[in-house]
Amino acid sequence: MKKQFMTFFSVLFLLVTLSTYSQETSKKPVNQPAPGPAFRMPFALKSAEILPDNSVTFRLLSKDASSVEVSGDWMPGFGTSVPMVKNDTNLWTLTVGPLKPELYSYTFLIDGIRVIDPNNPLVKRDGTRNESMLLIPGEESDLYMVKNIPHGTLSKVWYESPTLKLNRRMYVYTPAGYEDSQTRYPVFYLLHGGGGDEDAWTTLGRTCQIMDNLISQGKAKPMIVVMPNGNPGQAAAFTDAFVNPSVSAPYDMGLGLFEESMVKDIIPYVESHYRVVADRDHRALAGLSMGGMQTLTLTGNYPYMFGYIGVMSMGLVDVTTMGLKPDPDPDQDIKLETLKNSGYILYWIGVGKDDFLYKSVQSLRTALDKHGLKYTYRESTGGHSWANWRIYLSEFAPQLFR
What does pTM read for this prediction? Predict the structure, then answer.
């Protein structure tokens, strides 16, 4: 009986096994190759490739484009572009240079449409424009590099502005060691230009890298750098916040709205929330273009507020055509005399020879000379560009709080 029972289950197990095998065999395709991998890595192009001699090769793969060009800020003239060449694999290439060490931006023009380089992850925003970026190494661009040194902290700080009836944002750089010390630091207020926002000086100006390197090398004093949004109608960069409809325009340069908020809102916030030395000799102010105009207004209206003054690519301009307060200010002579007697420590001016505001800077110098104000003048090559403003920051910051 036991033997019969075991035989029965042996036969049953064999039948089930054969049935399962038959079903799986019938499902298996005949003469079908094994499946390939579920995911294939896309073909990777290297662009922009910096060659040993600092030439740069750009590459773009497109079979449908009839023309592709490269437009870069190393090229003479605004919006200049150079055609790329297409080979038999639909690869468009162009080699330029060698380029001098600097931080550059560029875009492709595909059948006239401007686009960033899809093979370059380094992108920077300049106002409403996004552009690809490349950094040519060398002595001139050394301060723009990220190095193995102590790094400061960049904070995006929201604060109340009763003056502008907005909750607004500014960027604040604190030097390495700030969090772990009890030291009180001087403060450098750094203003952007028209079309920019609170992100401009860090993204385009490389402020954090410049300050880290200068401080690490002992060329600049450790300091806090405050980079506010100089557009009084903006709570923050347009990518993150709305434009206040109660203000006529987001930029409103020359009306003094931001300048009033700077004194009533920003400086009090910084001096109550950070460990700072809250006096004139430990406050510096500098700005480029529109920020330079705001610097002139602030130092004219509040001559005892800042011990260090930097004006980049801005002077005394006739803005009547812009519907703003005309220059010269009827109180300009009085303001300059008051500033002269205020005991400021440094007045620094920088401009490029090809800057469209070059003449306005010379008008400013004439006015300062008339009243006997001492200043340092820096004239560089080039025009109204970040290539100059990064240099000016690199040269101005080491002169602060000495």
Answer: 0.83
